[in-house]
Specification:
alpha/beta; Rossmann fold; Conserved Hypothetical Protein Ylqf, Chain: A, domain 2; 2 domains; 8-stranded mixed sheet; binds guanosine-5'-diphosphate; binds magnesium ion
């Protein structure tokens, strides 16, 4: 379904990550807090084999805070909710990483190994915020970018405070493509390009989800009512009419309406919404 991930590309990414992993103590797996499961790479566990993984649910500022709480209970202490745009939660990451490595740090100390830096790598599917995260995380804590000789040429380590080092290039993982529901959720959040899924169809499904889960948001944003029993395409028409998206002949320009609705959803104008619950 997602044309940018043909098998050759996947094999290349897989090898690249495997190679980098040798140097890494903890993998930071970025997912989208609005769709924590759908935005996970299907092979993350086998890809990272024996390395500890800390799941960072990014864009938590766009997700429903009540649903974030449910996910936090579901994941337990293996996940954190953060926002790479506001910086929320970023300061707690280093403490969490040390917690995850507690046994290893203790073992090392008993053997007299101290002062080793803890090496981190970011992985995640497209558009979850990897670049934004690296930017924010390193600005908060970076002292310098080190070009380390001896490892793969050109590999850059960002030296952070408290003895952390972060690989400056993220591992770009492929999303799940076998499940249509998952593909739709990825498309709503912008992880899969619209060319792959018809935007009107996408909008209809989104409106039906909102009708069932967040009806007040539709009411407030689009000033429409009596849509609770309507189908997605009928709600699109209602909104299109309200907004005056009319073509000559008096028909509603549903394509334009769908594009605007999706844009507004992605821009956070419908408020904080989670598309997936535990
Ligand atoms: N609201 C919000 N937007 C974010 C956050 N993190 C990233 N973004 C936005 O998501 C989009 C993709 O981010 P980017 O860092 O390029 O993702 P990447 O493809 O994983 O590197 C950009 O428009 C970012 O501004 C976040 O925590 N909150
Ligand atoms: Mg990027």
């Amino acid at each position: 379904m997602n044309i940018q991930w043909f098998p050759g590309h996947m094999a290349k990414t897989r090898n690249l990550i495997k190679e980098n992993l040798k140097l890494i103590d903890v993998v930071l797996e970025l997912v989208d807090a609005r769709i924590p499961l759908s935005s996970k790479n299907p092979e993350i566990l086998s890809l990272c084999s024996n390395k500890p993984i800390l799941t960072l649910c990014n864009k938590s500022d766009l997700a429903d805070p009540c649903v974030n709480k449910l996910w936090q209970e579901y994941f337990g202490n293996k996940a954190m909710f953060i926002s790479s745009s506001s910086g929320q939660g970023i300061n707690q990451i280093s403490g969490k990483v040390k917690e995850l490595l507690h046994d290893k740090i203790q073992r090392d100390a008993e053997r007299g190994i101290t002062g080793r830096s803890i090496k981190l790598m970011i992985v995640g599917v497209p558009n979850v915020g990897k670049s934004s995260f690296i930017n924010k995380f390193s600005k908060k804590a970076a002292t310098q970018v080190a070009d380390r000789p001896g490892v793969t040429r050109g590999k850059q380590w960002i030296r952070l405070s408290e003895g952390f080092e972060l690989l400056d290039t993220p591992g770009v993982l492929w999303p799940k493509f076998d499940d249509e529901e998952v593909a739709k959720r990825l498309a709503y959040t912008g992880a899969i390009k619209d060319v792959i899924i018809d935007i009107e169809e996408l909008c209809h499904y989104l409106l039906e989800f909102l009708r069932d889960n967040y009806p007040d948001r539709i009411r407030e944003r689009y000033k429409i009512s009596d849509f609770e029993t309507l189908k997605g395409y009928e709600i699109t028409e209602l909104i299109g009419r309200k907004r005056g998206f009319i073509v000559s002949g008096g028909e509603i320009n549903t394509e334009r309406a769908a594009a605007v609705i999706l844009d507004e959803f992605r821009g956070g104008m419908l408020g904080r919404i989670s598309l997936e619950r535990p």
